[in-house]
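Re: beginner question about structure tokens

> Can someone show what the tokenized structure looks like for a real chain? I only ever see the sequence side.

Sure, here's an example I had lying around. Input first:
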Amino acid sequence: MHTLPDNDTARWCATQPLFRVLPAGALKGLGHELRERRYAKGETIYSELERPRSLWIVREGRVRLLRYSSSGRAFALRVVTGGDLFCIPSIMNPCPYPCRAVADTETTLVVLAAIVFHQLIERFPALACEALKLVCQHCCQAHAMCSATQERVEQRILACLVQLQESFGTTFPFSRQELAELVGTSRETANRVLLKLEQTGTIALAFRRLTIHDPARLRSWLERPS
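And the corresponding structure tokens:
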């Protein structure tokens, strides 16, 4: 068992999957390198095409990764919550950020300088393997998202609700506009599909909140051939 570092931020990071593979000495050393940053709701953390200088981990709150179409419509690529790392492929490559990161709520991030992270993965193969797993997961998610754009909007919304349930439970704090951005459609279209689901008793809609009453039925509709 590792001896956890004294620094609270480092102690928290030591419990996270990426860093808990590090030996005790390296974990203690992290305390001098980690920083916490707080962002207000709606504040931009970084923008498209910026060069990555930090590894980001959500400690509290929620972050939305966005891109914008030529017409200015927002498309949410991913929502990340407590314990999640985001945009790690840009750190590993390195390459400019492909999206914008915005605090969805009041958010606390743990930040590690990119140069320090690169030094760690060069020294510790186990950490490099865990980082590679995360990059592969993010790439698979991106491929799945590309494939999903070919599905009917109803299927995309069902898939989005199932995924959100896995992350947040049966009730999650998203507006209809935010759900529309997650599936790449208009608010009006998303609202029409959601109201149909509500009429069946499968979900309940409220202000900036959605509750799934029948997860099994939702998943069965998703898995049913089109």
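Each token stands for a local structural state, so reading them left to right follows the chain. Residues 200 and 214 are 10 Å apart (CA to CA).
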